Amino acid sequence: MKLKRGVALAAVVGLTMTLGACGGDSDSGSGGSGGGDEAPQGSIGVILPDTESSVRWESADRPALEAAFDEAGVDYDIQNAEGSADRMATIADSMISGGATVLAIVNLDSDSGAAIQERAASQGVQTIDYDRLTLGGSAGYYVSFDNTVVGELQGQGLADCLGDEDANLVYLNGSPTDNNATLFSEGAHSVLDEVSGYENVGEQAVPDWDPDEAVTIFDQLYTQAGGEVDGVYAANDGLAGAAISILERNGRNGEVPVTGQDATVEGLQAILAGDQCMTVYKSAKQEAAALADTAIALVNGEEPETTGETEDVDGDRQVPSVLLEPESITADNLDVVFDDGGQTVEDVCTGRYEAMCEDAGIS
Ligand code: BGC
Question: Mutate which of 48, 54, 135 to test ligand 1's pocket (most atoms within 8 Å of Cβ)?
Answer without folding.
Answer: 54
